[in-house]
Records
---
Amino acid sequence: AVAKRNREPDPEFNRQLADLWAEFWTAPEVTGELPGPEMERLVCRTWLRDGEIFGQHVTKAIAPFGSRIPYALELLEADFVPFDLTDPAKSLVHGVQKDGWGRPVGYYVYRVHPGSMTTALGSRFDTVWLPADRAFHLKFVRRLHQTRGVSIFHAVLSRLDDLKDYEE
């Protein structure tokens, strides 16, 4: 809660904030298809299944905002960041460029999903640079300095693959 200078809660301002939050939360992402609670569930499912999810903080005036708040989230599956894009000379690891401390500086992101069949083949693998201050990368890591996330199902999948080999 926001307080006045005398440290007492400011009920009018807090009510305005709550109203704006409720309006924003009805459509917080750029497609306008997901209300806030469903978006949270989808982000969680994607993070657990894929081990990571990327997103962009969108504030440009041309973006489709679902409320009066000039802010939206663009959610990106891990497939949007090319895992095979690595260049040690640029400190680029799996599509993520890092600084000397290992902090992400930015991400190379495909313009369209690489599995999309709606674009010309030549443009399907074009990337754009997404600065880290406009992005987020929620990832499940198993060790220090890990660049990309790992699915929580990785141990189960390995075991299932072993069972498949045994059955064959």
---
Amino acid sequence: MKQRIITGVLFGLVVLVLLFTNDWTRLILLCLIPLLSGTEYLSITKSRPVQYILFISVSILVYYFGSQANVDLVLITIFCLLNSVLIINLFLDHPIITHKNWSGLIGGIYIAGPFIFALSKHTYTNNKEMLISALLLIWVTDSSAYFVGSQIGKKKLFKKISPKKTWEGFFGAGMCTLIFSYILGSIWNIYDLKFWVLFGLIVWILGALGDLVASHVKRLNNAKDSGTLLPGHGGFYDRFDALIFILPFLLLLLYFNQGL
């Protein structure tokens, strides 16, 4: 536990410094996350070399089309639809997607796509504030879910995939996330209350589902952690699974909120 806390605090500080410093450090971080997470995902699914090539190819294609005009909404919708299928996948005894035979294609859209698309031309207004807010809210959600669940948690949230998560922890995290989302909205002083409520809901509910999707991927492939880069936390995919999953939905929220 001590190692987990130390790693979490130090890593969190490094991530925030990279996000705050300037556009170049933010670019480095937002390239490292999908690259390392995608590599770990392909490793978990025991992908063949051809899948690594497919992963890179799909990522490049998404970057290219994302840099063109008038396709923003189409691509964001594709990302959201794939993630919705991954949610449905959780509830099926025989999953539609096993993540193995098509890991390169799925990884390119599910993991790398949203990041590359966001970097290509989405320089949405207040982009830095949104990324920082998303990460802070994810950390609040994770910490509060763990604290509440460990203290009063009894009813299992999704026993067959993640037996330690509880409904009490889930709802406790929701309350903390929405309160903190309101605080962030007040600090940044951008967008209205409705936006920040939706932002908080996306991070809370879809972030939890993103975590379950990552757990499902590992369970299907008999893996405990995605890697060993972060002692006590596993790998980059373990640490950023929620951000990876919610990013398309946050892009969709920003798209409609700003009328882009």
---
Amino acid sequence: EYFTLNTRGLEKFSEKEIAEKFPGAEIREVSYRKVMFSFPGDMANVVELRSAEDVFLYLGKLNNIGHTRNDLGDLVKKIISLNFSTALKYISNFRKHDITEFSISSSSVGKRNFSYIEVKEAVSEAMQLKLKLAYDDERHEAFDLRVFLEHDIAYIGVRLSERPLHRRPYKLSTTRATLRADVAYCMAMLAGIQHTDTVLDPMCGSGTILAEASTFNPQKLLGGDINEEAVKIAAKNIAAFNPSLRVSLRKWDARQLPLENAAVSCIICNLPFGKQIEVGDINAFYTSAVREFDRVLQNGRRGLLASGFKELVVALNFLPHLHIAATYETNLNGEVSHLMLVEKK
């Protein structure tokens, strides 16, 4: 059994990806930031998930976790009572070497009189005695125990991969306000990419959306950015992802694209929020960008990510033949953001 950890609001994307990619998988629970599922197939397939921040071997779900400092001791006792020997065997086989150290990652939702840092400290002391392994709080690559506290429930697991899934190895360089790879993949899922599509990212940044969109095998990929350095970084990252992947990249202003009318069938774009990347008047910027997207798009789809949700809705209202088919609220870099599927009526 496994559970994913997801960006808030995007749990349904992992549920869909698991159902589509893993025949025989059974979804057990979908809740805040998590999808719990069982899968009888190869564990190596599970780490191929792209819509999740991370995925864990499930050890247990502990109920009735109190919020007082005295309850911290009870939590530790419940955690160390779990079956770690089987997990150690699985992870050792998966790592292809013996496990000599462990680490702990912890996060918390809800009010309590002890912090997630105190949870790590208390659990690490008890686990050293039980596992007979060295504790390393810096490296989280060998046997990383995950303690996810959600109000009065604790989900316990061990990370499958040596690094979080969202940290894609192809991202050699990044630009300001770079988009997380798991979110980019969810945007590509939302856009419903077909094999016949020409996919455009008009503000490509470090190329993350284009790389993730390529996994859906569209016919053609186009991208560009107003920042020439970003275009170079995108080319470098895409080459690291797949040296044989052909992507047309250019320096341009997304409000004046050097493309013919109806040149593309799908647009996926992480719109700047006006915080980390200055765009001037955000209303004017969104209005100009949306009009240009409409010009180059066939009767197709746009997968848009925006922090300025109200401003984007206002911009879309100037084009009454467009409508928002789906919206997913999430949180990125401390900003409430929205994934939106926009279609022509």
